């Protein structure tokens, strides 16, 4: 199992560590739902060292990535970030990612569990392009500070960069705890105002400690992957292996904003297949809320009367909405918010209602 | 050391004879595995109706935490006489006192023998084999 630069810190903070995507990561430091509430009311700090960080450099970087990314990389303004996917020719994703557009180069942040597959895919398709592919994952750290007070807390440690000048899904560079040229992006996986920081391994622990120290009075606490999963589900954000995978395409997942069919982008892997799905989708990813006592979990079957209509992709108790929530693909005719369905728990049915995604977000409606 | 007045199953339930009846609960190990030591991570339990006849090893219900759901198995055969209704909305009781107030079922045992189950020392050794 791989370890982030903060492995010993998590143990010292009382974190419960588990295997996730090949990494030894904290699932929680205290009660998971308390950690969710902490992020929703103040702010929380996450170790994201496990996420894959890949710098694609060279004069063909943008042109190359437009052949494997679903989003239109050339159209992203310098300093901006877009959500994208890597899809196979059948239109189904091998991963989703964030694309940071620099003047010439492009910085990619991918899922931990898919980093090796992504790198193979990127390298395999880069032949003939003047690009250098630099996997920075093992020599860098990544932190996220998420929540309403994150600007106020982080600004105490950042000189020469006014955080309020970084718009949503934009990034800049600033001096963080004296570390010059630190990449700071206004991104996250919680539906809250927040930032993600990219640091050299050797400095990650110092910055982590400094954020907890200056944030203590505001209530900032370390947050594990358990709460992160609840937060992203509340915010309607997909997780590879749940909402999207090798059999679930981004169109039916409602991720159209990350897929460009513009002619100027040129052809890209998966375009033809996804154009066909877009023309005639058969199902839709929706939210599901259930006031019953049971949490709908991944794989639980869904019914409309006696008709089996699909299964749960992700489920969790939501402290923000005070109900159990889930995501699932349902046939288009049953996708309208308010539709009554049942979740099956080994033959026992529990009523549930289709809801619009996201369930909750301060960053988008 | 865990209580020696009862026996333990490999699926981490305990059973204690109490006169003509037997009490069943889950061990501190089961609680820890489900909740990672955070009592408020236990969110729901699903328990059987009184009168139900359980075979030894039969699943009689489920206990659920934020991250996982676990089956509950009858360590011995018997009829369900009573469930501890106090825990249904207060699973923290199971977390705080799994040996006493956090009992789950009262059974009328089919037989008054707990043979085949582990005593506290044997359960301790069994847990050691799971650690690695």
The CATH architecture name of chain B reads Beta Barrel
Broad CATH class of chain B: Mainly Beta
Q: What's the order of the H and E elements of chain A? A: HEEHEEHEEEHEEHEEEEHEHHEEEEEE
> How far apart lie the N and C ends of chain B?
20 Å
Key descriptive features of the protein:
heterodimer, A: 365 residues, alpha+beta, Gyrase A, domain 2, Elongation Factor Tu (Ef-tu), domain 3, seven-stranded mixed beta sheet, B: 132 residues, OB fold (Dihydrolipoamide Acetyltransferase, E2P), globular
Describe this structure in words.
The complex is a heterodimer of chains A (365) and B (132). Chain A is of the alpha+beta class and 365 residues long. Chain A folds into two domains: 1-280, Probable tRNA modification gtpase trme, domain 1 (Gyrase A, domain 2, 2-Layer Sandwich), CATH 3.30.1360.120; 282-365, Elongation Factor Tu (Ef-tu), domain 3. Chain A has eight helices and 20 strands. Chain A has helices at 7-12, 32-41, 61-68, 115-125, 150-155, 201-215, 225-234, 271-279, and strands at 16-20, 23-28, 44-47, 52-57, 81-87, 93-101, 106-110, 132-135, 140-146, 158-159, 171-176, 179-185, 194-200, 221-222, 283-290, 301-304, 307-318, 323-331, 340-345, 348-355. Chain A has a seven-stranded mixed sheet with strand order 10-11-12-13-9-3-14. Chain A has a six-stranded antiparallel beta barrel with strand order 15-18-17-16-19-20. In chain A, α2 (32-41) packs across α7. Chain A is globular, with a radius of gyration of 20 Å. Chain A starts with 6 loop residues before the first helix and ends in a 10-residue tail after the last strand. With 132 residues, chain B is of the alpha+beta class. Chain B has one domain: RNA polymerase II/Efflux pump adaptor protein, barrel-sandwich hybrid domain (OB fold (Dihydrolipoamide Acetyltransferase, E2P), Beta Barrel), CATH 2.40.50.100. Chain B has three helices and nine strands. Chain B has a six-stranded antiparallel sheet. In chain B, a hairpin with a 2-residue loop joins β2 (13-18) and β3. The radius of gyration of chain B is 14 Å and the shape is globular. The model of chain B has no long low-confidence stretch (mean pLDDT 93). The interface between A and B is medium-sized, with 16 and 13 residues.
